[in-house]
């Protein structure tokens, strides 16, 4: 991949994260009211599900990978409050949906470049401090661990925000950090189990004689943007974690 091509991609992703379009003009139709909650029960954010169906041959068996994660109500409320503050005081056009879409694209691009050891192509998306740490770690990784870093966009099973923090300092500089968590499937030649990680899923394509084994892996990417007047409207990745792979 040529440097100019990656630079154009990095610029597009930065603009997608920094300047998302405004809120949609039309609201979806309101759902029909259901029965009121029973006394003594509190309403909580629902569990989140994500799935991917593997296509087999005509009439052949299929397997679906389902990722289930129950969101902490306290964390859910805290992150929504922080997003509200961002819209009220920093960027009235900030959209969680658009940010998440851009973060997924950035994660896929950066993870694949990490897997290929093309760190010099990450300067537009990753901070200088994070790149320095990555260069030391990547050089020590075995080949199968490097292969496991790559996440194709359609292999990302689930994405959610891990934490949102808003910072001010005495000089009037203000910035936001958003930690994003990703669950993705990867077919690298890893052991059947990694300490602290999910077990291997065997996804079947076609019939019983055709199986493809994939790992369900996690990654944490932290995005930062400065909102001080006059600062560039770009999001930068300041921390990258692939537990049990990139340590």
Automatic annotation (TrEMBL):
InterPro entries: NTF2-like_dom_sf
GO cellular component: mitochondrial inner membrane
Gene3D superfamilies (UniProt xref): 3.10.450.240
GO term, biological process aspect, one: protein insertion into mitochondrial inner membrane from matrix
GO molecular function per UniProt: ribosome binding
Protein name per the record: MAIP1 protein
């Amino acid at each position: 991949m040529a440097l100019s091509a990656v630079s154009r991609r990095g610029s597009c992703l930065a603009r997608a994260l920094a300047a998302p379009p405004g809120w949609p003009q039309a609201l979806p139709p309101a759902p029909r009211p259901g029965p009121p909650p029973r006394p003594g029960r509190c309403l909580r954010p629902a569990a989140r599900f994500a799935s991917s169906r593997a296509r087999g041959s005509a009439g052949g068996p299929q397997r679906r990978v389902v990722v289930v994660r129950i969101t902490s109500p306290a964390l859910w409320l805290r992150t929504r409050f922080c997003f509200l503050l961002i819209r009220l005081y920093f960027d009235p056009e900030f959209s969680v949906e658009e940010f998440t879409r851009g973060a997924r694209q950035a994660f896929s691009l950066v993870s694949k470049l990490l897997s290929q050891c093309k760190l010099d192509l990450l300067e537009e998306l990753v901070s200088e401090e994070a790149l320095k740490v990555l260069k030391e770690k990547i050089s020590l990784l075995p080949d199968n661990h490097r292969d496991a870093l790559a996440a194709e966009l359609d292999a990302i099973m689930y994405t959610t925000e891990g934490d949102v923090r808003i910072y001010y300092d005495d000089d009037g500089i203000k910035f936001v950090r958003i930690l994003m968590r990703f669950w993705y499937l990867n077919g690298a030649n890893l052991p059947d189990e990694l300490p602290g990680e999910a077990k291997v899923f065997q996804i079947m394509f076609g019939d019983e004689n055709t199986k493809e084994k994939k790992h369900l892996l996690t990654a944490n990417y932290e995005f930062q943007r400065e909102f001080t007047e006059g600062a560039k409207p770009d999001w930068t990745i300041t921390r990258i974690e692939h537990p049990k792979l990139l340590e």
